[in-house]
Structures are given as structure tokens and as C-alpha cells.
Amino acid sequence: MDNYPIKSVAFGGFDKQDVIRYIEQTAEQAAAAQKALQEENDSLRAEADTLRQETASLRAKLEEAAARQAQLQGELSRESAARLELEKLKLLEAEVSRLKQDADALRPDAEAYAQFRERIGAIECEARKRAADLEAATVGQLQQTVDLFRAKYQTLMSTFETTASHVNSELRKVEVNLTQLPRAMDQSGTELNELAARLERSIKGEN
Which terminal Cβ of the chain has fewer Cβ within 10 Å, N or C? Predict the structure, then answer.
């Protein structure tokens, strides 16, 4: 505010016109200052609104950037995992290549082993056939032996039955003879006693 000189008068204090002009000037200056302050306040509010909008926009961009960072971090993790898997696959490819070389090197032996197995299979089939033929021949021979033994057994049983019948008949005759033997012995004893008596009488007559 500019200093405005107020003149004093000899009677009554200050000059009235000077006081009025001073008050008017002060009011004008205050109104101008208030207007300037209002304009500045409006400008600051607008700037604050702009800053709030920018802050919101920046916050949204920051959140978007954070989400994008998380997404990129996930992609990076997946990429790292995929790279590790790729390294493992490369190692596996090298192992597969080595195994293929080993397989190629072993293929002649495998083919020879397959042929050997086929020959072994043919030999086993032939052996089974021979075993079956031998078993059949053995069974047939055993059957013939059993039949022959059965026939001989039947012949022997028939002979035994005939012999047993003859022996039983003879035993019956012996039994009959044995039954008659005591009677014959008694008769022989009687005759022997009579003969002894005659001999004794003959001896006495001679005396």
C-alpha cells in the first residue's frame, strides 16, 4: 500500500478530504488485494484439482505399471522355468542321442540275439515235439506191457486156479487116506499082535 500523506489543519485535526481519499484508496487497495487473493486462491484450487487429477492419473498409471510389472515378473519366472526346462531338454536330447548311438551299436547284437532266440524257440519246439513223441511212445509201450502183464496174470491165475483145484483134490484124497489110516493101523496092530502070538506059541512048542 502506498503511503498517502494526510495534511493536518489548524482547527479540527486532519484534512477531511485527505482522510476520505485515504479511506477510499485503502478500500480500493484492500479490494484489489482481496481480488488478487481470490484469483490466486481460484488459481491454486484449479492447480490443486489439476494436481489431484494428475495424481489420480499417476496413481492409476502406477497401479497399471505395478500390475504390468507383476505380469512381466510372472512371464519372466515362466520364461526362466521354460529356459531351465529347455536346458533339461537339451541335456535329455544329448542323452537320447547317446542312447541312440549305443542302441545303434547294440543293434547287431540285438538282431543276433533275436535270431538266437528264434533258433532256441525252434529247438524248444522240436524238443517239446520229441518229448511228446517219446511220452506217447513210452505210454504206448507201457500200455503194451500192462496188457501183456495182464494177459500173463490172467494165464497164471488160470493155471493157479487149476493147480489149486488139483491140489485141493489131492489134499482131499490125502485127508480121506489120513482119516482111514487109524483104522488101517489098528488092523495092522491086531495082525501084528496075532503074528507075535503065533511066533510065541511056535517058540514054546519047539521047547
Answer: C
